[in-house]
Amino acid sequence: ELNNRLQRIQNELTTLQSYVYRSKGRSVRNSPSGLSSTSFNTAMARISSHITQLDMEIRRLTGANEVLNHKNSELQTRLDRISTDLEFRLKKLEGNIKSSTQAGIESSGISELSPNTSTTSLPFSAALKGSDRGVQPFGPKTPPMDNKNRNKIKPQADISETPEQQYKRGHLLIIEQQDFSAAERVLTQFISDNSWHRLAPNAYYWLGRTYFVRNNFEQSAITFAEGFQRFPKSKKAPAILLNLGNSLSKLGKNREACTTYFKLQRNFRIMEDSVRRRLNRERKRSKCLR
Q: How far apart are CA 288 and CA 199, in angstroms?
């Protein structure tokens, strides 16, 4: 619109200049009948003043246009820099997560699985308890289970249990019984047995939530990050990425959390309303600039 306005003014100025040029070559006697020399000079003065005003307006608008172009260029450069920095930080975060997972395997040897399950078969095998990670678990400490309770929970999948039934069992342990420790074991086993199943993204999400609600934010961040890394285009990916940001924020890493929120907003234009509302709320809570 600004360029169109400049073009119109330029055309009008050219027309007026052409008229004035032609008028200067005329003698007063060739002027229209009844037009005195004084009147003619007055008309020329008005036209000249109008031309001057148009010229000033063109200069002003041209300057404004240059300023806008400069600001637009700076904004594009800044966005490119932010995008590059975001990709770098996410790759660095993924590298730190892998290093942390490997260190947990070598140093602790502690697993939330049953003794018959090999920890090295898990993609996130450093699944330590919150208290072992230096984080106080949510709620009262759970006493060691006797054989009766252990048989009741049945963390390992039954031979006749389908992957769908195994996932559902872990899901129900969360939403109906709030037994997050048992759900952790079931979902961990599900992912180990069915790492690329269609329900695996959901399993990663709910497994991460079992850590999050028990204040084991480091392990929840590891789980959410690996879930997004494996299934970046799944329907559950926006919720997984949002919860990764929440976990990072809880760990005091607001900058990394904001980077994660920005990636979520950029990569997923379409998302559930509940995720979008939480995203806006969490971005404000982490004091993200964008």
A: 32
Q: What are the per-10-residue average pLDDT scores of the chain (290 residues)?
A: 70 70 56 57 73 79 81 70 67 63 43 35 37 40 46 53 95 96 97 94 97 96 95 94 95 93 91 92 88
Residue 31 is classified by DSSP as S
The total of other beta-carbon atoms located within 10 Å of residue 183's CB is 24
Nearest CA to 213 out of 183, 187, 239 is that of: 183
Using only the alpha carbons of the chain, give its radius of gyration.
Answer: 35
* C-alpha to C-alpha distance for 42 and 40, rounded to whole angstroms: 5
CA distances from 147 to 141, 153, 210 (A): 18, 10, 23
Please give the helix or strand (H or E) that residue 239 lies within, else none: helix 237-250
- 223 is a domain residue: yes
Kindly tell me the sign of the dihedral angle through the C-alpha atoms of 132, 138, 141, 144.
Answer: negative
Residues 148 and 160 in one domain: yes
**1 inside domain:** yes
Report the predicted TM-score, pTM, of the whole model to 2 decimal places.
0.49
Report if residue 26 sits inside a domain: no
Indicate whether 74 and 174 sit together in one domain: no
Joined together, the tokens standing for residue 100 give 């942390």
Tokens of 165: 């039934």
* CA quadruple 18, 24, 30, 31: dihedral sign: positive
Q: Are 221 and 240 in contact (CB under 8 A)?
A: no
For residues 139 and 181, what is the distance between their CA atoms, to the nearest angstrom? 12
Q: Can you read off the two tokens belonging to residue 182? A: 């048992």
Task: Enter the DSSP assignment of 16.
Answer: H
Q: Which of 194, 174, 175 is nearest to 184 (CA)?
A: 174
- Could you say which of 107, 123, 150 is where a domain stops? 107
Structural domain contains residue 42: no
Boundaries of domain holding 247: 110-285
* Residue 172 and residue 249 in one domain: yes
